[in-house]
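Morning F.,

Quick status update on the modeling queue. The single chain you submitted on Monday has been processed. Sequence for confirmation:
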Amino acid sequence: MTQPDVTLPRVRYMGFPFRVGADGANSAARFDHIRQQVEQVLFTSPGERVFRPEFGFGTRRHVFEPNAGALWEYAQNRLYGSLAEALAGEVDPKTLQVEINAPQDRPEVMLVRVRYVIAALQKEEIHEIEV
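Structure tokens below.
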């Protein structure tokens, strides 16, 4: 009895940010592509994309807001919704977790932690981004 093939095809995705080098456009592997999608959602403001005006979280607009619990809860809900839509099909939606807060020793920093499980591989990924 043979074992089924449990590996996924090696597909390359367009890299973010988009760059063109001597050998053509840069590309990314699947895990890097998903991480780059998280970054795109974080750093794209709603209305910035012509054909997807609802896309993005808009981290820039939160930079000068008070770094407090009420803002974190609002931002977490908005970011969760944006990521759930952007990562649909790649990430198990039941495992998507978003946490926004400030480190104790640096209250001027907004720390964004995104955790999810890649649906096809059941592999957990965690990204922490300081803004």
